[in-house]
Design brief:
alpha/beta; 2 domains; 322 residues; Four Helix Bundle (Hemerythrin (Met), subunit A); single chain; Trna Endonuclease, Chain: A, domain 1; 7 strands
Length: 322
């Protein structure tokens, strides 16, 4: 991967008495960078024996799930497990987790920590952080796709613990520049409306990302779009659909959706069409952008409203019983 996309060159060396205390290293490392949060859960078995080592919350209500390890072979499945669990997380469960650690109610702890009531925060975002001493090549490639192409809120914090006779240090670097704080204004998605919602948060978030790609194309005059912009749009669309379809296919298979095979065939057709767009670009097709807009809107919107809506009931039932 191009080193310019990573933050591994931003290494911080901290000294202190840690004695291999993972929790203290984690808290001190993030506090050093100004991230204010507190841990609300430890060693949580979410789904299919997937463990969240530490679950934390910041003053905006954003959840941060810290994972010590995640093997590359099951990376996407584990990510799905964690995301589905976080999407269903209730205040009652958070209270239970806090009672196990602090023997006190969560909302009381939140108010003491941040000097505001939890009822005043409205951030429903969550962030997954893989905490590790080393990232294998295959995992690195998957994370690069998740972060830079699929825009999934996940990152890796690389910590190396060094100790000698006199002192001990922690060398810290990030896979990519951390963005926990959600202060930026969210851009409007002009083509999206709630009629497209399936009430399945992980799928709705990914569908909204598709609409952002579509809107970027729509807001420009097709005749004024440069070759570089066209190529970027094609590659972004291709990367997006590959990531989204992988998530969706995992989910409908788990839900034992009756028409899963036919649904997956539709996905393959769309992927083939994105490959055709690339060929059209290579052949200097002057109508490429218009063709992309027509096909995307006609196919994808009918796919969401038609095919995706058909699996909604079975997937919601599956999620409900997790």
């Amino acid at each position: 991967m191009d080193s310019s996309t990573k933050a591994k060159n931003k290494i911080t060396i901290q000294s202190g008495s840690y004695n291999n205390n993972f929790e203290k290293i984690l808290i001190d490392t993030l506090a050093f960078q100004g991230y204010d949060f507190f841990i609300i859960g430890k060693g949580i078995n979410v789904l299919n024996n997937t463990i969240i080592d530490f679950l934390a919350i910041d003053k905006n209500g954003q959840l941060m799930a810290f994972i010590k390890s995640m093997d590359s072979e099951h990376f996407l499945e584990k990510h799905l497990d964690i995301t589905l669990w976080l999407d269903k997380l209730s205040l009652q469960t958070i209270n239970s987790l806090c009672e196990n650690i602090y023997h006190r109610p969560f909302e009381q702890l939140f108010k003491e920590k941040f000097q505001t009531s939890y009822s005043n925060v409205n951030d429903e975002e969550h962030f997954i952080i893989l905490v590790t001493a080393f990232i294998e090549e295959q995992t690195e490639a998957i994370m690069d796709k998740l972060i830079h192409h699929f825009k999934i809120p996940i990152n890796a914090l690389i910590l190396e613990h060094i100790k000698n006779d006199q002192e001990e240090y922690v060398l810290q670097s990030w896979f990519t520049a951390p963005t926990f704080k959600n202060n930026a204004t969210k851009s409007a998605i002009s083509s999206w409306d709630n009629s497209y919602s399936l009430d399945i948060p992980i799928i709705d978030r990914q569908h909204k990302m598709f609409f952002k790609i579509y809107d970027e194309l729509l807001k420009n005059d097709p005749a004024s779009i440069s070759d570089a912009q066209k190529l970027y749009a094609i590659e972004q669309l291709k990367d997006y659909v590959l990531g989204h379809f992988q998530t969706e296919e995992l989910l409908i298979k788990r839900a034992k959706y009756n028409e899963a095979d036919q649904h997956i065939q539709q996905h393959k057709m769309f992927i083939n069409k994105t490959n055709e767009f690339r060929q059209s670009f290579d052949y200097k097709n002057t109508q490429l952008v218009n063709q992309m807009l027509v096909f995307i809107r006609k196919w994808f919107l009918s796919h969401i409203a038609g095919s995706d809506a058909q699996y909604k009931t079975q997937v919601l039932e599956y999620i409900q019983h997790l």
